[in-house]
Specification:
Layout: H1 2-13, H2 16-21, H3 25-47, H4 52-93
């Protein structure tokens, strides 16, 4: 009977972190703080202003703009050719 009383008394003295996680309160708070800081850091990396998603969006936009530039260069060359042909016809008629 004394052993049960001693076990019960020891369980009452344990903190919640010792009872549920097997860690003293200071170590539990340190581990919880580390997990919290790591979570915030990873959140900023993946979803912040300088995040991976922003980088991928910018690369996609760069590719789109590069393709648009090439398309516009081809269109510009065709329009310049048409302009010079019209200018030549105009000079012949005068």
């Amino acid at each position: 009977m004394q052993k049960d009383d001693h076990t019960l008394l020891h369980e009452e003295k344990e903190s919640l972190s010792e009872r549920y996680f097997g860690l003293p309160t200071a170590k539990f708070l340190l581990a919880a703080g580390f997990v919290l800081v790591a979570g915030i850091y990873l959140g900023v990396i993946f979803f912040g202003d300088n995040s991976l998603s922003v980088l991928l969006d910018l690369e996609e936009r760069q590719n789109y703009l590069s393709e648009d530039i090439e398309h516009l260069k081809v269109e510009n060359a065709a329009l310049q050719k048409q302009y010079f042909e019209l200018k030549e016809l105009d000079a012949d008629s005068q």
